[in-house]
Specification:
about 350 residues; alpha+beta; 3 domains; five-stranded mixed β-sheet; four-stranded antiparallel β-sheet; 15 helices; about 45% helix; disordered N terminus; restriction endodeoxyribonuclease activity; DNA binding; Restrct_endonuc-II-like; Restrct_endonuc_IV_Mrr
Length: about 350
Amino acid sequence: MKNVTNSNSTYNEMYVAFAMEKNSTQRFELITGFHPFEKRMLTEREERQIFSFLSLVNHTEIINSKVDLDYIKTAKLYLKLFPELHNYLGTSEQSFYKKLWQVVLNEVLPVKIGYVFSPYATATRTLLKDKIDKFKSEFHDLSYQDLRTKNKIVWTMPFPASSEFGVVVEEKVGIGSALKGGISINQFPSGFLSNYLLNSQQSFDKLLNANQFEELVGVVYENEGWKIKRTKKTRDGGKDLIATKITDSGEKIMAYIEAKKPDKNKIKVEQVREFYGVIRDETNRGYFVTSSVFTRDAKRWLQKKLNLAPVTIELIEGKELISKLSKLIDGNAFTYFHNTTP
């Protein structure tokens, strides 16, 4: 399932604090676009031409070249600091830099990660500038308070979460890595989690396992005013969550919620029939939620049954679940979360 958020509405940025030994700083600085010896940012030409130059020109010729051009000197520096880089040429530029980032990330320690989600619209971002600046300052101060930074050089830097480095950090120590490791989503503020999942480079049905998906569905319905209780697993199935709510008139109502995250297949009529049987026998209200979609036969079968029985069952597909998730996001579209890596 593809996350169908408006890519023009929210900007996802990461802040990472790295602690490193002095002998690791040169490679780190170079890959981040900072000349480690001249102490300046690399020029646009240097950054733009390095990959093609290293790919097309013999490396021995580069090393022996006497030509005094900035991008040639920077290419020499890459060959000196990354002698293994020849193993990563012959691929795309994106893959090349991703490999180099992975090399560097093995030598430095990300001690803290922060995420910022803010509107793309310039006017709205301007209104949030003070809040974003405050976050940056707090993040920087907290990073230096971490005991793992003692006697080490610390770099704190922002970058788009969709960048090559953003992807590498996510895979190794980011929230995506934690989610894939099976961490409970209840450890994250719901607004932050929704922003993260909806703006992730991966659709959330690939990020979350079945247990986390159940938790996510529970969070969504809690946001709609239900009190949620997870059930013990049984072979019969039919309900993953029991939801209760007191109506405005004081009436207590109960609903069963089934949460299914199939790897590939659609939800078939047999699964809907099983859920319907449980609802009919034990309560009168149910929600069947999936990250996928229901087959046409499953929808038709249920509609016929609902015309005959006094029960209420709603089928919630992935797109509608995304819509519900978006309602969890804070109205100003700005959230952040500090993650201290182990």
